[in-house]
Write a structure and sequence with these properties.
The complex is a heterodimer. Chain A has no helices and eleven strands. By secondary structure, chain A is an all-beta fold. Chain B is built from no helices and eleven strands. Chain B is globular. Classes of the chains: A mainly beta, B mainly beta.
Chain lengths: 110, 112
């Protein structure tokens, strides 16, 4: 099956930028998503990018997509302690099925 | 986007018993999805529930263990049957949104 990989852990200081990376294998991906999961909560959709785009910016969030390398990243500017959570990337295939990465735990130190 | 009410939010259950998880959506949706998130892991799709037909299960999941009901376009239940400690996970329902998918807040199940 298709595979989505993320690094497990990222630690940054408050006010710095965070960059969370994701790689995927499905060449037929239509959309790619970033979800945030806070402790004890469900998944919150942060942002998404269509597969024929290479960049999307939404306030403090910037998504970069390198379709050739099948590499997706999420940059969070001015990271705050409230951004501490697990971040999942997910790719949607042509059949509208989602495959999730393993999640990256972001820790923001004051 | 749709709003999902999922309950219970958490439960501690004895092995060998069953737990039914409910998801109520505030709008009609054709497809609902049930996921399992094992401790420290990502989400794995259990099944897709369509109203008026049997759920479609993913590899490794069977109806006898995870029966699903979908009586109408706004409601679904997932039952975890004959539970063992290995079933301790977060279970989430999900529905398609305008873009992407909306998730319930999850049910944290601990089997003792």
């Amino acid at each position: 099956g298709e595979d989505v990989e993320q690094s497990l852990f990222l630690s940054v200081r408050e006010g710095d930028s965070s960059v969370i990376n994701c790689t995927y294998t499905d060449s037929s991906s239509t959309y790619l998503y970033w979800y945030k999961q806070e402790p004890g909560a469900g998944l919150q959709l942060l942002t998404y990018i269509f597969s024929n785009m290479d960049m999307k910016q939404d306030q403090r969030l910037t998504v970069l997509l390198n379709k050739k390398d099948k590499h997706l990243s999420l940059r969070i500017a001015d990271t705050q302690t409230g951004d501490s959570a697990i971040y999942f990337c997910a790719e949607e295939d042509a059949g509208n099925m989602l495959t999730f990465g393993g999640g990256t735990r972001l820790m923001v130190k004051p | 986007s749709a709003v999902i009410s999922q309950k219970p939010s958490r439960d501690i259950c004895q092995r060998g018993t069953s737990l039914t998880i409910q998801c109520q959506v505030d709008s009609q949706v054709t497809m609902m999805f049930w996921y399992r998130q094992q401790p420290g892991q990502s989400l794995t799709l259990i099944a897709t529930a369509n109203q008026g037909s049997e759920a479609t299960y993913e590899s490794g999941f069977v109806i006898d263990k995870f029966p699903i009901s979908r009586p109408n376009l706004t409601f679904s239940t997932l039952t975890v049957s004959n539970m063992s400690p290995e079933d301790s996970s977060i279970y989430l329902c999900s529905v398609p949104a305008e873009r992407g998918y909306t998730f319930g807040s999850g049910t944290r199940l601990t089997v003792v």
